[in-house]
């Protein structure tokens, strides 16, 4: 990518898109294009095509997605399938029609089977049944991967797909109901500390295990792969280690400085028992995560306190 190449970051205000923009800026890329939803609705196929025809981006990071935690995925399945399938199809097809040189599609670790052996290797995709709480989202993401691969095969395009693990960092969603576990717990512990509440409710049993990657690490991996990886096969992006939800809650508790108790609400779903990515392929491609969970969590808490 030439430093002045025109790069469209779809979803440039979101958790991942904004981190990709920061990373591109720090690497000296100067011609980055983004559009807020009010100006470009990615659900609108002709608007997307007009945008690509007039802007003619050379590179595309497809980081626009409808995302949310276990409650949101389980409660709004129709929105999660529609608002992922349609925008990604519109952006990928418009990229093909306007001869975009390369596109990077962001998937998710929930594309892997619920009971996949751990850590999950790229070849486990479509080897078994999905986790029901986020199946519509996962099916949309799998369709995005297959669309990139199909266009590469039939049209000779260069569309790569990456599968990040659970992400956190600046511009995350801190909604108590709809967020993912890490931002939700930051907010719960901060608010409980401030109002001297004696306990914090943690959903589920606390035993599921998740892997957490700081979004600045994820963005750096995405740009690294955009610059160096050209194959159709998916690539996992993670740290290669996980923690239980109970361990995470205790870590957030101590980072925030809360002194009360944890209470596990087992009427809430646990979801997938474990989601840990095998990152050996990414490491062979020359990239490794650098932000430890303790450090990343501290900066995420600071960001939340400043920007809530
Ligand atoms: P998942 O990775 O798709 O299951 O999505 P989440 O990040 O929403 O949830 C991960 C795990 O954290 C699940 O086992 C949840 O039940 C658990 N969890 C515990 N407390 C919370 C909370 O306050 N919010 C969310 N979203 N999950 C929580």
Number of helices: 10
**Corresponding CATH superfamily of the domain at 7-169 and 211-240 and 276-291:** NAD(P)-binding Rossmann-like Domain
- Helix % is 40-55%
- Reading the helices and strands in chain order gives EHEHEHHEHEEHEEEHEEHEEHH
Low-confidence stretches: none
| DSSP strand content | 5-15%
Q: Which fold does the CATH topology of the domain at 7-169 and 211-240 and 276-291 refer to?
A: Rossmann fold
Largest sheet: 6 strands, parallel
CATH class of the domain at 7-169 and 211-240 and 276-291: Alpha Beta
What gap, in angstroms, lies between the N and C termini?
36 Å
Q: Assign the structural class, choosing from mainly alpha, mainly beta, alpha/beta, alpha+beta, or little secondary structure.
A: alpha/beta
- Give the strand order, joined by hyphens, for the main sheet: 2-1-3-4-5-10
User: Average pLDDT, to the nearest integer?
Assistant: 98
Radius of gyration of CA atoms, rounded to a whole number:
19 Å
Number of strands: 13
What is the CATH architecture term of the domain at 7-169 and 211-240 and 276-291?
Answer: 3-Layer(aba) Sandwich
Bound small-molecule species: guanosine-5'-diphosphate
Oligomeric organization of the protein chains: single chain
In short:
With 308 residues, this protein is α/β, with parallel strands linked by helices. Helices cover 43% and strands 15% of the residues. It has helices at 15-26, 45-55, 70-75, 77-97, 135-155, 181-194, 215-228, 245-256, 280-284, 293-307; strands at residues 7-10, 32-33, 59-62, 102-106, 159-164, 166-168, 199-203, 209-210, 212-214, 235-237, 243-244, 261-265, 274-275.
């Amino acid at each position: 990518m030439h430093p002045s190449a025109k790069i469209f970051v779809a979803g440039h205000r979101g958790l991942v898109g904004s981190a990709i923009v920061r990373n591109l800026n720090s690497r000296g890329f100067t011609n980055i294009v983004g559009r807020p939803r009010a100006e470009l609705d990615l659900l609108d196929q002709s608007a997307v095509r007009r945008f690509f025809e007039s802007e003619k981006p050379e590179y595309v990071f497809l980081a626009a997605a409808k995302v949310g935690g276990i409650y949101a995925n389980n409660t709004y399945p129709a929105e999660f399938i529609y608002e992922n399938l349609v925008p990604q199809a519109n952006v990928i097809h418009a990229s093909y029609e306007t001869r975009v040189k390369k596109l990077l599609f962001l998937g998710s670790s929930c594309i892997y089977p619920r009971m996949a052996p751990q850590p999950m290797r790229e070849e486990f995709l479509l080897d078994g049944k999905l986790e029901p709480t986020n199946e519509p989202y996962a099916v949309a993401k799998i369709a995005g991967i297959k669309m990139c691969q199909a266009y590469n095969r039939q049209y000779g395009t260069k569309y790569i797909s990456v599968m990040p693990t659970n992400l956190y960092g600046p511009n995350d969603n801190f909604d108590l109901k709809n967020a993912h576990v890490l931002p939700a717990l930051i907010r719960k512990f901060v608010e409980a500390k401030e109002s001297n509440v004696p306990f914090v409710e943690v959903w589920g049993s606390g035993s599921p295990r998740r892997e957490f990657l700081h979004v600045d690490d994820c963005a750096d991996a995405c740009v690294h792969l955009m610059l160096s990886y050209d194959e159709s096969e998916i690539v996992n992006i993670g740290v290669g280690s996980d923690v239980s939800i109970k361990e995470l809650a205790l870590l957030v508790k101590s980072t925030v400085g809360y002194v009360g108790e944890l209470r596990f609400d087992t009427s809430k779903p646990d979801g997938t028992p474990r989601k840990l990515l095998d990152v050996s392929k990414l490491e062979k491609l020359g990239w490794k995560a650098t932000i430890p969970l303790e450090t990343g969590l501290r900066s995420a808490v600071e960001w939340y306190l400043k920007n809530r």
